[in-house]
Write a structure and sequence with these properties.
Length: 206
């Protein structure tokens, strides 16, 4: 479930109101895509929920209907709404779980690839990119280096979002504002500040 999708759901609630007359892992405090070692993807979305016409039950119902429709089409339970709660600071937290990155991509219609560098190359992803070390040492690598890292793991994302992976992050796209949050998490922002990502971000880990 993407931020944009959640915002669309909130817009539906807004429209409805108008029509009716009106070893623990670090706590997730920002919208984050988490890639698990088993391939599952957990998306925690945190958004403003301060408008009086927002209703948590209606939001849950809208999301659940979308999950049910997708799963019926997929023939399996590939997308699950794990939690939805209002927070004291007038935000809402929604936690979605996906069977894998392809389920995430199909459900949200956004690019997300998770696998080895070799898998990414075989899937047609353009590795003619420049990645920078996120250790701040100025090291950069390109396509030739990446092709030598065939068994290293890579996440390819087209979102301005935090991404948490199951091992230490090594490199991130040079042409995106990719910064370390902690050893397993990077924050992705577009160079122009646009929240709607228009380019792919590559993250190398393990």
């Amino acid at each position: 479930m993407t931020r944009k999708w959640i915002m669309r759901a909130l817009c539906i609630l807004c429209l409805a109101a108008m029509l009716t007359g009106c070893g623990r892992e670090p706590e997730v405090t920002e919208t984050t895509i988490e890639v698990k070692k088993n391939g599952q993807v957990v998306h925690t979305i945190i958004e403003d929920f301060s408008e009086s016409y927002y209703n948590l039950d209606e939001l849950e119902s809208t999301i659940q209907q979308a999950c049910d429709t997708y799963n019926a089409s997929a023939g399996k339970e590939a997308v699950v709404l794990k939690a939805a709660k209002e927070n004291d600071d007038h935000t809402v937290t929604v936690v979605m779980q996906y069977a894998d990155a392809s389920a995430y991509s199909a459900f949200n219609k956004l690019a997300l690839f998770v696998g080895t560098v070799k898998d990414a190359f075989n899937a047609g992803y353009d590795l003619n990119v420049t990645l920078s070390s996120l250790k701040g040492d100025g090291e950069q690598i390109g396509k030739e280096d990446l092709l030598k890292m065939g068994e290293k793991h890579i996440a390819v994302v087209r979102e301005a979002v935090n991404v948490r992976v199951w091992d230490k992050v090594r490199y991130g796209s040079e042409d995106a504002c990719t910064t370390m949050v902690d050893k397993n998490t990077v924050a992705i922002a577009q160079p122009d500040g646009n929240e709607d990502a228009t380019q792919l971000t590559y993250i190398i880990y393990k």
